[in-house]
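Quick one: Acyltransferase family protein from Streptomyces mimosae, structure tokens please.
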Amino acid sequence: MLHVRNQRAPLPEVRATKAVPPPTVTDGQARVNARDPFFDNAKYLAIVLVAIGHAWTPLRDDSRTAAALYNFVYAFHMPAFILVAGYFSRNFTGRPDQLKRLVSGVLVPYLIFGVAYVLFKRWGTDDPDHPFALLDPYYLTWFLIALFVWRITAPLWHIVRWPMPIALTVAALASFAPSLGNDLNIQRVLQFLPFFVLGMRLRPEHFELVRRREVRLLALPVFLCALVTAYWSVPRMDSAWFYRSAAAQDLGFEWWAGVVMSLALFGCGLLLTVCFLSWVPARHRWFTALGAGTIYGYLLHGFVAKASRWWEWYDVAWVHTPAGRIGVTLIGAAVVTLLCTAPVRRVFRFMVEPRMDWAFRAAGRGGSADGGSGRAGRSSNDAGGNRRPIKAG
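--- reply ---
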């Protein structure tokens, strides 16, 4: 007699179903999804500080408080901006697509805005003979030529054994070398270099460390001490040190003062940058999307800043009252915020991110001419990728 109790029951028939394809993600969507809100927030807040600092410039002479706040902000706002720029340049190796973005996103805007600012000065100051000097960056266009030099030398900083000591040495040597001259604003290029190199050496884990709660708490007394020191320094220190645009001898000091101030300002700028970044939100905020347009705010707000001096907006007596200074601060922040918005970016994209496909040869095998974006003029402000989100703190 046969026993069938261990016989497996037949499986039910499986009906064939059509496979559902995964949702299509466009290249533009992938780029948006890859953005880290922490860095967009940091860039937006840094550019607001830049604009506020420029708005405070004419207020320093009649207000020690305004001068102290000016020194405080100038101690770290550009170091923070440059450090983040270095972080996004850490993957720059000189590939053809990277070089094309560097030319179209940095060098060409430098030329465009160099001409635009000179023409604006000729018109705004009734000075039709004001010269255009290719090697003498006008006003805030120095940052573009500096970024070009820093980024084009990025591969070098990847291969040297001691990048930070070398960068600090270069900055210190430049600080007492007036013979370097003013071409390409080379003093600023070299004296701000350590912040860029340091940014290249950082990894996402370092920013996660900065975002820890204990770092934020420690930042509060550091900021307070910095504000007190800034107030104390107003009658005792030349604020030109913060610009890094001249050698010590040009400022009337001995050569060794350049070395001391170069290292001291680096340490001070780095400490305050860490404190600043510790308070940058890691989640999306109402201003996060504006972080993608900070280069627009930077380059365009200079026209407003210059016009306010040339056309004597600061001659109004109310501006130099406490309420007026607060008003100037709010206006400066509002103007640069407006200039970072999407409508403004669409209008001025031809100047800030010009399409340059026509200027370059088509890509050969082994890579896209424009890094896969189909556009050589993509913002170099995001070069290096923004792939790994920082954990919210």
